[in-house]
Amino acid sequence: MGTIIGQKEFFKGIGQIKFEGEESDNPLAYRFYDKNQLVFGKPMKEHFKFAVAYWHSFVNSGNDPFGVGTKKYPWMESKDTTKRAHQKMDAAFEFISKLDLEYFCFHDFDLIDEGNSISESEKRLNDISDYCLLKMEKSNIKPLWGTANLFSNPRYMNGAATNPDFNVVSYAAAQVKNAIDITLKLKGENYVFWGGREGYMSLLNTDMKRELDNLATFLHMAKDYGRSQGFKGCFFIEPKPMEPSKHQYDYDAATVIGFLKEYGLDKDFKLNIEVNHATLANHTFDHELQTAANSNMLGSIDANRGDYQNGWDTDQFPNNIYEIIEALLVIIRSGGLQGGGINFDAKTRRNSTDLEDLFYSHIGGIDIFARSLLITQKIIEDSDYISMLNNRYSSFETDTGKKFTRGKLTMEDMNAYAKKSNEPKLKSGNQELFENLINRHIR
Ligand code: XUL
Ligand code: CO
């Protein structure tokens, strides 16, 4: 299976996860994800580029504000930092190859614990990335993207790039430099900025304009450094409205696009849209995707889902077929993800403590995307959906409508046209008809 299993096999008794088709009742098999199946003329795996999130699957032990970790994963046991990091990486490579995937996403200090100084952290990151390269030689697994954790350490309590203290800003930059270096070294395809603490709690003690200017300066610097080192991939910003900051500067797609354009960053940066972040901003996932696509900035996705009753980021695995079809309709119609893929930024529940749960959750997430893609193809290619949608705008295809679209009409022309054509007839939006069409194809 082109896999490398480390010294120790962590997921004993679980073999290669294979496509077994819809009729299979094997919980450790794909029922819809057939990686080489062509959909819209492209293999499924290329549409998706599924990635496993290092932090949720191999670092997080299930602790929450009310209790310690519940997940006693064997790769977390060693007291030795290096050994623990190596075993964690062995587990990650074993897991990803057993799922038959090719990508993972990581924060710098997911790979190995942060050291007591920048130099010590640098050394640790060098060592663990050397080890990663060895594992990569024997597999086709690599990072979809890397990032720096600029939110966990107490030094970032007032922000990283937007911290009011220059000393913290420079520390953050040192960390980002190293994170870009290892992303490049590991042939990572993209680099992400998620600004969890780039925001504020109270405007009384915050100079918002100065912080935003500093954020832009920081991003320009990071981008210039990456390019100077030969990084050809995309830089992504991942919007989120709040949590842990009350007001996060990267609130939603529209806010981020405005920021990138205002500061001249829009050529190098695109967006990484996360489902649960969209819903926390009171948007739907497909709204955020479409907003990014409108500006040609739909780069990547963090796949998960929120909870209808909870107002926080629950990062559950995706399982809502309707939501994913709505998303894929946007993604496919806008030409696909630019540079990125689908990272499962999702965690098993705190009481899902079996090693198998890591497999069930990813298999479920992967299959819901695969199944939704097949349905999306039917909707786009075999149904009236596209013509129904276009039909709503058919009046812009008339002579006068076309002139308007091309910017060839004046207000006087519009006034004359309106007088001549009288009160417009009501035209139904037929929302329920559209909804039924989607439902009819879910089978
Ligand atoms: C937090 C979140 C992060 C980013 C990477 O809500 O989504 O894990 O994806 O820092
Ligand atoms: Co995320």
What's the quick description here?
This protein has 443 residues and is of the alpha/beta class. Helix content is 44%, strand content 10%. It has 16 helices and 12 strands.
Task: Tag the structure with descriptive keywords.
eight-stranded parallel beta barrel; disordered N terminus; TIM Barrel; binds D-xylulose; 443 residues; alpha/beta; single chain; binds cobalt (II) ion; two-stranded antiparallel sheet; globular; 44% helix; 10% strand
Please, could you describe this protein's structure?
The chain is built from 16 helices and 12 strands. By secondary structure, the chain is of the alpha/beta class. The protein folds into 2 domains: 38-382, Divalent-metal-dependent TIM barrel enzymes (TIM Barrel, Alpha-Beta Barrel); 385-441, no CATH class. The strands form 3 sheets. An 8-stranded parallel barrel has the order 3-4-5-6-8-10-11-12, surrounded by 4 helices.
Which ligands does the model contain, each kind named once? D-xylulose, cobalt (II) ion
Instruction: Name the helicity range.
Output: 40-55%
- Report strand order across the widest sheet: 3-4-5-6-8-10-11-12
The share of residues in extended strands comes to: 5-15%
CATH C-level class of the largest domain is Alpha Beta
Structural class: alpha/beta
Enumerate the spans where pLDDT stays under 50 for 5 or more consecutive residues. Answer: 1-6
Count of alpha/pi helices: 16
- Evaluate the radius of gyration: 24 Å
Q: What is the architecture of the largest domain at the second tier of CATH? A: Alpha-Beta Barrel
SSE topology string: EEHEHHEHHEHEEHEEHEHHEHEHHHHH
Strand tally, please?
12
CATH topology value of the largest domain: TIM Barrel
Largest sheet: 8 strands, parallel, barrel
